[in-house]
Amino acid sequence: MQRFLEFVEFTGNKLPHPITLFAILAAAVILIFAIASRVSQDSTGSVLSAM
User: Fold this and answer.
1) Quick check: is 1 in a domain?
2) 2-49: per-residue pLDDT in tens?
3) What is the pLDDT of residue 39?
4) 23 in any annotated domain
């Protein structure tokens, strides 16, 4: 158990600050949705409707 906790601590210390991590992940989500939006518009010629 101690070895596992040391591994978790070591790995956690390698991560960036939580605010930086949040900003990176938020930007990634926005980018993915922007790309998906363009793909759905290009493939059908119009925006997909939910209904």
Assistant:
1) no
2) 999 999 999 999 999 999 999 999 999 999 999 988 877 655 555 555
3) 78
4) yes
Q: What is the 8-class DSSP label of residue 47?
A: P
The reply to whether 6 falls in a domain is: no
Quick one: CA dihedral 7, 9, 11, 14, positive or negative?
negative
Q: Is residue 12 part of a domain?
A: no
| Host domain of residue 44 | 17-51
Whole-model pTM? 0.58
CA–CA dist 31, 38 (Å, integer): 11
20: tokens are 């930086």
